[in-house]
Structures are given as C-alpha cells and as structure tokens.
C-alpha cells in the first residue's frame, strides 16, 4: 500500500509542510501494523499549477507528476492551513483538478492547521462541498492542529503536544484500516462496474 501526504499552504517553509513532514515520519515509526510500501509527501506550493478552468488539457506541465502520485496512492492525507476561515485555494484547486479515476473510493485523512484556536471551518468546507465529484472518502477522524507553531516540533513540549501526537497515531492507524477495507471495493469496481456507470459519475 502507498500513502500520499499533500500539504497545501501557498507559502514555502510553512507550518502545514511541517505537519506533513511529521505525519510522514510518524507513519514510518508507528508501532501499529500499518506498513506502507512507500510514503510520499508533496508540497503543492513547489509546483506551478494553473487555476483549474474545467479543461482536462489545461492542467500544466507538472500535473502528470502529481496525477501519478495520486493515482498510485491507496490513502491520502490532505493538510490545509486556515485562511479567513477557509481551506487554502491550493487545496481547492487541487481537488478540482483531480478526477474520480485517480481518487474515487480512496480514504483521506483531513487535517486543518491554525496559528490560533481555530481550524474547524476548513474541515467543514472540504467535507461539505469539495469531494462530490472526485469521490474521495474522508474518514471520520479528522485532525485540527491548533497553535501549530508550538506543537509537532522536533522535541515534544508539554502534555498537550504529547496528547496530540498520540491522537495523530490513532488517526493514521484508522486511515490505514480504511485503506485496507476500501482497496477490494476499488478492485471489484474496476473489474465489474455498475451498468451505465457514466450516467452516475457525478455526485448529487
């Protein structure tokens, strides 16, 4: 199985990327039985992606690299900063560019990052209206990383940081469980799709 972690801040050296690196390291070192063949972390700000305009041929020269990583992944971690109570434009642009051929019926752990005590609204926004057509499956155990500059650094600092790290481990464990459970669904659907499948390709 393959895990893909995508941090979607538009700033280089962001706190979202820091969380992404921590998630990658935690996935390698977890005591739970969730070994992935590969764990890949993408920072979308390092790619020059155009704004999505609805045309499949206008996704830019760098999109095929991202598309391949998404297509090969069995589970995704999507990390967004909270800006003005919203998910990042990069995350929403990325989700618009993805198609169900790469993402359908794959589990996703949603993580919102806040410099203060917020972070709820991006999770709500993504669950409500960002997964309709690409058919990603958000697992119930999303994460909100509040006061992010004070946690998930090189050395744990205090009871809250330690508790958060334990919660991260639990969420990664559950993500792996969902990845294992959904893999047969994707395989069966590929081999025996529902009749007239194209008539139901968009969510309602």
Automatic annotation (TrEMBL):
Work out whether the entry's keyword set contains Oxidoreductase.
Answer: yes
Q: By its UniProt entry, which Pfam families does this protein fall under?
A: FMN_red
What are the record keywords, sorted? Flavoprotein, FMN, Oxidoreductase
| Coiled-coil region | none
Q: Which top-level group of life is the source organism from?
A: Bacteria
One GO MF annotation is: oxidoreductase activity
| Positions of the NADPH-dependent FMN reductase-like domain | 1-146
The catalytic activity of this protein is classed by the Enzyme Commission as 1.-.-.-
Q: What SUPFAM superfamilies does the database record attribute to this sequence?
A: Flavoproteins (SSF52218)
EC class, as a word, reads: oxidoreductase
* Protein's name according to its UniProt entry: NAD(P)H-dependent oxidoreductase
Organism in which the protein naturally occurs: Shewanella vaxholmensis
Q: Provide the organism lineage as a comma list.
A: Bacteria, Pseudomonadati, Pseudomonadota, Gammaproteobacteria, Alteromonadales
